[in-house]
Amino acid sequence: MDAPGDLVGRTHRTLRAVAVHEPGGATTTSVAREAGLPRPTVHRLLTSLQGVGLVEREPDTDHWVLGPELYFLGVAAARRYDVTEAALPVVRRLALATGESAFFSARRGEETICLIREDGAFPIRSHVLFEGARFPLGVVSAGMVVLAHLPDREVDDYLGRADLAATYGPQHGAGEIRRHIAVTRTHGYAVNPGLVVEGSWGLAAAVFDQAGSPRWALTLTGVAHRFGADRIPQLGSLLLREAHALSETLARGQTRG
């Protein structure tokens, strides 16, 4: 029998794996592969979750999708955690001003999760980030900028445990990540020069909570030739201005709450 902590962890991994495949859903085998769990275990978990409305099975495809109970729980949680209402006009303004794709991501533990995407007018876009996409800290520009603004002891602890190079290539080795942290701290914003997908660049600035912790990030992404050496400082300055203003807006909201 699973210990309570093991069961909760496996359930969480299973729900996240289903979420990765939204909106079309996924087979039990695909969910098991994404969650890194045995298929029989995942099938039992999904069946139990279906019983309480946390997942559903599409009758036409037999694919698992997120259930209505998650929506209702999310609505309840939004009263405490939702910051997208304040972030959405900022993201739209960035997309309009630059022509690039703009994003708002939130830190969740040792990951960043993309919450908002708005595409600008430039017709060629990067598709690395999308709403719901998760990346470890240190990966993509949002993960880079959040990690760079954490205290050194947290960075050292994280890089001592995380093996980003195993999944994302040698360009994400600890030494390279530390070099990006140093550059990010100098400029204030992070640059991802096509490290996840060749030719797909990104810039990000951290958004801070009332305590001064990097909780969110604003990002611009696009193809490499749109992020030349002459334009990056302009985009970076714009991101920093918008991130600073959004930090103040969110801090005021936290104070009222």
From TrEMBL:
GO terms for biological process: negative regulation of DNA-templated transcription. Pfam families: HTH_IclR, IclR_C. The keyword Chaperone does not apply. SUPFAM superfamilies: GAF domain-like, Winged helix' DNA-binding domain. Residues 5-68 form the HTH iclR-type domain. Keywords: DNA-binding, Transcription, Transcription regulation. Gene3D superfamilies: 3.30.450.40, Winged helix-like DNA-binding domain superfamily/Winged helix DNA-binding domain. Coiled coil: none annotated. It comes from the Bacteria. One of its GO terms (molecular function) is DNA binding. SMART domains: HTH_ICLR. Residues 69-252 form the IclR-ED domain. This is IclR family transcriptional regulator. PROSITE patterns: HTH_ICLR, ICLR_ED.
